[in-house]
Structures are given as C-alpha cells and as structure tokens.
C-alpha cells in the first residue's frame, strides 16, 4: 500500500511536467526539409542542451525528422527546451485531428509565439495543404524525450 502511495505522489509531480498543453499557431519553413542540413545551423547546436553535444549531426540524424523545427519556448543557444519533444495536433475544418511528435531544434522568429515545422511535416498535418493554408491553429503538448525517440 505504501508503494502505491509513493507511486501516486511521484506521478503527481512528474506527470504535469509533460502534460502541459496550449494552443499555438503553426507555420512551415522549408529550411527544415533538407535532411543533410547541419545542426550547427540552428540555435540548438552547442552547450549542455545542444543537439551536437548529444551526438546528432544533421536534421535527418534526429529520429523525429522531418517533424522538427522552431519552438517559441527556445529563446537562445543552449535553452533547456533544445531537443524538447512536443505532440502537435491539428484539427481540420471537418473535425478530423492529425498529430505528430515534433523535436524543437531552433528558436522562433523574434517576438513570434508560433511553432514552425518542415513543409513535409505541415503537409502531413494538413493533408497536403500546407502551402495553400500557410498558418494553422494547433494544440501542443509537451512529451518526454522518448516520445521523439531521443536518448
């Protein structure tokens, strides 16, 4: 019985860290589509939280590629959000929802509160309509790194 109480207490503290959900907007940036792009070219390259530091070298070396891009939580180099995993869910005008697990590798544009993903990633979420739509509303939920297959 004590073990059950301890487990519940631990989950009460740990679960909220990854259960955070919020509505944002999502755009695409074809910069994230070239898998051979070096991670040295993004904000999250070096430092304790840097992706190069953790052994990843190019976009396509990340297990969640092409579902990578910029997150507004990343304010600069070595942000604690570098390499963070997010479930991005888009619900279309017919009520159908599509989700992907996304790895944050870059800072968003200054002052932007939007996420940005590869064109391929946004096409998946919008059923091939990324260029036509351009900007969509999304629900974002923070996930554990394992959800994006990161060590």
What does this protein look like?
By secondary structure, this protein is an alpha/beta fold. The protein contains 3 helices and 6 strands; from the N terminus they run αβββββααβ. The chain has a 6-stranded mixed beta barrel. The longest helix has 17 residues. This is Cerato-platanin. It comes from Boletus reticuloceps. Keywords: Secreted, Signal.
Q: Order of strands in the sheet with the most strands? A: 1-5-2-4-3-6
Q: Please describe the biggest sheet, giving its number of strands, its sense, and whether it closes into a barrel.
A: 6 strands, mixed, barrel
Number of strands: 6
Task: Give start-end ranges of low-pLDDT stretches.
Answer: 1-16
What is the residue-mean pLDDT, rounded to a whole number?
A: 88
* Helix-and-strand structural type: alpha/beta
Name the helicity range. Answer: 10-25%
How much of the sequence is in beta strands? Answer: 25-35%
Distance between the termini: 33 Å
Rg from alpha-carbon coordinates: 16 Å
Order of helices and strands: HEEEEEHHE
Shape: globular
Question: So how many helices?
Answer: 3
Family: Belongs to the cerato-platanin family.
Signal peptide: 1-19
Organism: Boletus reticuloceps
Pfam families: Cerato-platanin
List strands and helices in order, with pairings.
Elements: H1 2-18, E1 21-28, E2 68-71, E3 85-91, E4 97-107, E5 114-117, H2 119-125, H3 130-133, E6 136-143
Parallel strand pairs: 1-5, 2-4
Antiparallel strand pairs: 1-6, 2-5, 3-4, 3-6
Pfam families: Cerato-platanin
Subcellular location: Secreted
Organism: Boletus reticuloceps
């Amino acid at each position: 019985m004590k073990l059950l109480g301890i487990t519940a207490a631990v989950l009460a503290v740990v679960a909220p860290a990854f259960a955070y959900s919020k509505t944002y907007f999502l755009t695409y940036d074809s910069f994230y589509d070239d898998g051979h792009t070096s991670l040295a070219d993004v904000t999250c390259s070096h430092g304790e939280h840097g992706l190069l530091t953790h052994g990843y070298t190019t976009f396509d070396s990340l297990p969640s590629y092409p579902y990578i891009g910029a997150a507004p939580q990343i304010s600069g180099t070595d942000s604690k959000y570098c390499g963070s995993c997010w479930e991005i869910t888009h619900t279309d005008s017919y009520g159908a929802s599509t989700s992907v697990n996304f790895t944050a590798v870059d800072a968003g544009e200054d002052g932007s509160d939007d996420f940005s993903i590869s064109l391929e990633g946004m096409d998946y979420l919008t059923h091939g309509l990324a260029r036509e739509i351009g900007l969509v509303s999304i629900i974002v939920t923070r996930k554990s790194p394992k959800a994006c297959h990161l060590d």
